[in-house]
């Protein structure tokens, strides 16, 4: 009886261990290149808002601001690591060159099937205009826009959802919810993103698959 109980205890411990590993937070790095001249405290606020949404989805984001003159040496490391994403914040004239839509706040470059999407773009003026129209602060909206594009990078094609941060396009309701930090990924999307990050960890140096 004692032996049986200890075996059951061991089995339960093993099952718990497996579940914990599967559900534990995962880590990504996001390199931010700002071509719009955002003040550093505003950029930090936006990164903070984005980081909160990602953290609630079980993803810890490590941020690096990579444009001169504040370019840390670490920006040159890990460029072949497919858990490192790059987000470029562009002014309107630059953004217009890469998208035909006038309403789009950001865009992501999807990789080939089975590959790893790494690059996303966000337009600062469009985010600010949208925030003005909704009478809300623009830094959380910038953070949410970055998060939405990171969602596309990790979830792949056709990753819009009926509600939440991956709704496309956002309505006034979503923008208001961003202002009060209430817009999140759906649980199944958060789980899918964590699984994708774990897949990327296993392929950290597989840059040839990009
Ligand atoms: Zn989208």
What does this structure look like?
With 210 residues, this protein is of the alpha/beta class. The protein has seven helices and five strands; from the N terminus they run αβαββαββαααα. It has helices at residues 2-23, 40-56, 92-96, 124-133, 138-155, 172-179, 187-202; strands at 26-34, 59-65, 84-90, 106-109, 119-123. It has a five-stranded mixed β-sheet. The radius of gyration is 19 Å and the shape is globular. The N and C termini lie far apart (55 Å). The site of zinc ion (ZN) has 4 residues, from α5. Zinc ion binds next to α5.
What assembly state would you assign to the polypeptide chains in this entry?
Answer: single chain
Mean pLDDT: 85
Helical content class: 40-55%
Query: Widest sheet: strand order?
Result: 2-1-3-5-4
Structural class comes to alpha/beta
How many structurally independent domains? 1
| Small molecules (ligands, ions, cofactors) in the structure | zinc ion
Distance between the termini: 55 Å
Examine the coordinates and then state which fold CATH places here, giving the name of the CATH topology. Answer: Collagenase (Catalytic Domain)
β-strand number: 5
Q: What's the architecture, going by CATH? A: 3-Layer(aba) Sandwich
> Biggest sheet, open or closed, and with what strands and sense?
5 strands, mixed
Q: Radius of gyration, Cα only, in angstroms?
A: 19 Å
Shape: globular
């Amino acid at each position: 009886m004692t032996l049986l109980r200890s075996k059951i205890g061991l089995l339960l411990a093993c099952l718990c261990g497996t579940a914990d590993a599967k559900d534990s937070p995962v880590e990504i790095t996001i390199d931010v290149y700002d071509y719009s001249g955002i003040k550093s405290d505003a950029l930090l606020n936006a990164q903070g808002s984005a980081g909160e949404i990602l953290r609630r989805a079980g993803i810890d984001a490590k941020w690096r601001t990579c444009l001169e003159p504040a370019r840390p040496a670490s920006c040159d490391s890990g460029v072949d690591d497919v858990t490192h994403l790059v987000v470029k914040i562009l002014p309107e004239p630059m953004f217009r060159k890469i998208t035909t839509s006038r309403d789009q706040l950001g865009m992501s470059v999807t990789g080939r099937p089975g590959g790893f999407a790494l690059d996303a773009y966000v337009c600062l003026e469009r985010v600010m205009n949208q925030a003005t129209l909704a009478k809300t602060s623009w830094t959380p909206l910038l953070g949410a826009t970055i998060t939405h594009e990171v969602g596309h990078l990790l979830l792949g094609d056709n990753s819009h959802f009926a509600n939440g941060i991956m709704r496309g396009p956002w309505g006034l309701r979503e923008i208001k919810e961003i202002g009060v930090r209430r817009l999140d990924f759906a649980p199944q999307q958060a789980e899918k993103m964590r699984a994708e990050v774990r897949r990327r960890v296993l392929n950290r140096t597989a840059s040839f698959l990009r």
